[in-house]
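chain below, 461 aa
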Amino acid sequence: MSQITNKLFPIGILIVLTLLLVFNLTCKQMKQPVPEGLSVEPVTQTDKSGRNLYQYGICVDSLHVTDYTIKSGENMGGIFTRLGFNSTETDQILQAVTTILDPTKLRSGMNYTTFTTRGINEEIRYIAFARSAMDYTIIDLTTEEPTAYEFNKPITLKPAYAEGILTSSLWNAIKSKGGDPLLALKLSDVFAWQIDFFDVKEGDSFQVLYDIAYVDDTTALHIASIKGAIFTHKGKEYTAIPFEQDSVSQYFDAEGNSLRKAFLKAPLDFFRITSRFTNSRFHPVLKKYRAHHGVDYAAPVGTPVKSIGDGTVIAKGYESGGGNYVKVKHNTIYTTTYMHLSKFASGLQVGSRVKQGEVIAYVGSTGLSTGPHLDFRVYKNGQPIDPLQMDAPPSEPVKPELADSFSFIRQTIYAQLDSFRILHASREAVIAQEGFYNREGWFGSLSREVSTGVQEDGRNK
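prediction:
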């Protein structure tokens, strides 16, 4: 009997320790039942591989998960009351969460989630408030006092590809092919020093590799970056190769020259030219011919106006002809003027230093103007010059000691662009041969190609 007892004693100790461990894992919490009438979705204990399941960093193997939407007029205190917390508990939770999440920032339509224990006496252990698709505030109720912390979903990058031939604007070309039109803005930023996107021509074409940022591996957030591009404009091919030197990543052409120049090609994004530089133009207000030493860009009121280069604001104010205007001196040679503005950027003053691409004002129709537009002028050594014909010097090229590394990256990008181009052409041929238009897109082992010419990895539209 003593032998049996000796054998059973360690087993008994193990059982006791196991029970203590389970008890300790069930941390103390504010014991609140889930309100009646709310649907509760049980969560499978493990995935197919037997691993624990997590949501917002919380292990949900033995928890119920319930999603809610904030109602119109509802505040954070009201939410906690609706969840069953008394006034004392609500105050304690608010004290913990307001250090991380401003209750005034909650809006109707935003989502939050509760995590409750299973069983007869269900208890809320965690509450998660979604601030965005990837940012969350977690309230932990498993301790004596409630605590709050931030949780950020990881972002994954997936490669994508697009190509097309322009019949109007780049924006329309990408949008009409089922792509994200914001890709047009990304491309215009990359080639801002080489191509005036107000002056693209029918028949211009593009190929672009880019990364899309995903959360949960399925929800696309935004275009993260351009990984390589070729834009053919007026028969000339422009290439963009991203390359890092001196810890700074920027774009270079095929010869290793920086795409970045001293000045942007235009101070606006994607709006049409209505009047060009000329010595004789019929003025629509004065009704007579006079010189127009600038370029007019038609754009809606409030469109941001960017400084085309680094410089100092040397004048800002109002004049009868040009309305609200800003003048920026870039160096001892070049000065630019922006006129007919609706308002100036906040804090902009004479003497302010501005950076290339910085918003300095907004399009308007002040002064002698028949409609909202920007009158943009460039002066070289005090004399007006045609902004569309101005050629600024480039930044530093790829350093000689990095030439081999740059050459390898360039060839890799060319190979990827060629592969996607061939893949796209083959899909178009299949579609043409079968005589149908595949609106739902095509899934490949490595990428998706919408029949319109835009490809992405891993997700159907």
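Residues 67 and 113 are 4 Å apart (CA to CA). The mean pLDDT is 80.
thats it, cya
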